[in-house]
Amino acid sequence: MGLQQSEVPVRENRLKSIIYYSGNAAALTDPQKADSFVHKERSYSQCSDCAQMCAGTITYFVRNAAVVVHSPMGCFANTPVNDTQFRNASLERGQDPDRVHVLCSNISENDTVYGGIRKLQKAVQECYDRFRPEAIFVHSSCAAGIVGDDIEDTAADMEKKLGVPVVPVYCEGFKSKIWSSGFDAAYHGILRKIVKPAEHRQKDLVNIFNFLGSDTFTPLLGKIGLRPNYLVPLASVETISHMSEAACSSQICETLGTYVTKELEDNYGVPKVKTPAPFGIEWTDNWLREIAGYTGKENIVEEVIRTEHERIRPQLEELRTVLKGKKVYIFAGDSYAHNVGSIVRDLGMELVGMTTLHHDMHSDSSETGKDTLAELVKLYGDIEHYTVCNKQPYQVKKIIEELRPDVMIVRHMNMTILGGKLGIPSLLEGETNISAGYDGVITTGKRIRNLMETRGILKTLKEYNQFPYSKWWTDQEDPFYFEKK
Ligand code: SF4
Known about the structure:
By secondary structure, the chain is of the alpha/beta class. It is built from 23 helices and 13 strands. It has a six-stranded mixed beta sheet with strand order 1-11-10-9-12-13, sandwiched between helices. It has a four-stranded parallel beta sheet with strand order 3-2-4-5, with helices on both faces. The mean pLDDT is about 95. Bound molecules: iron/sulfur cluster.
């Protein structure tokens, strides 16, 4: 593997990722057993998603850039983006609003016989003429991949003609059951075509790979005299091109940033922060300490940590009194669920279960001991009911009914709806940055406390709700019935 390759291998092959599992958490953290878990196919799927969506969450929000989705219009309908989102996210970050610049090449049936390259060339040209971007991303799709359209050469030709980077992103949905492979595909294109070697190091700059989200890392890193470099959404092409100048790289979630931070380290010498992202008190302490080591701030970091603990202590104790022993269930993408688990532990809540959308059995980092599930098990203890499930509401409903949590914390909107139908208050972790750092623990605690007040209305909602499942499925006890058969 390397940046000279046009594509990065998908996660099933690179990280031995799995899409279903039911057991305890500790069993998944044993590197010796990693190869024994090969759950990459399902005998029945209720729904699925596409790597292109994950690639889009990275590329659609790059300032001064544009995207051509080389696909039929149906794939383009999956485009999870609009101008309002871009504008609101920019304002929240304290930046000027921008607009989304995305076109679809509109591959038709005819093109799947004769090839769609001419349409791609036309779309890239149209994209340049309309938006005058500083870079153009070209997303591939199942149709383009199966037909074998030569996106690589077309992008290279158009790049020469237009004088701006034209970046292939190989995110065909059929290639991977792990949608997060789309993150890696987008980063791979960025690293190959946009990032430049560092002219000088910016010793106080820390790369933070994140999604759209508010500016909570400036106050956190500012305490030790450092600045965040938010990447990639909402950053400009120019900013992205200089990510190699940072003192080190971290992310809000290992699942999001595992590949790009590792490649930045290997190819540009930017150290990857190996400790888990700064969610929960102990992980924030460790994160600050490691970053202090890369930036020469060791002399002040311990005092900052001590002061921060003192600062949040009164509010934390108050929240613990209210939330202690409350049963919580977490559903999120792989590593972000572990981040939330770290916060929940600080709030004194009981983690009755956790489900992640997939699980990477290996990390891109060579330091296997630093995988976030292993770190969570070390911090919290084993999680008896740990499941991996790539959405599949028919299964998740059963998991939740068995665990009967007081509250759910979920990363995706559709899960809050499921929680509501089951009468369970559900906290949406849609904006991840607000949960980071010491203040993130307090913010999350307050949000959960307020959420518990909605139990009454949800109880009513549950009484009036009907699920579409047959009696046969309702009577089955095992959520993973189909896989075990
Ligand atoms: S690229 Fe493939 S999986 Fe993705 S939306 Fe299009 S057809 Fe579906």
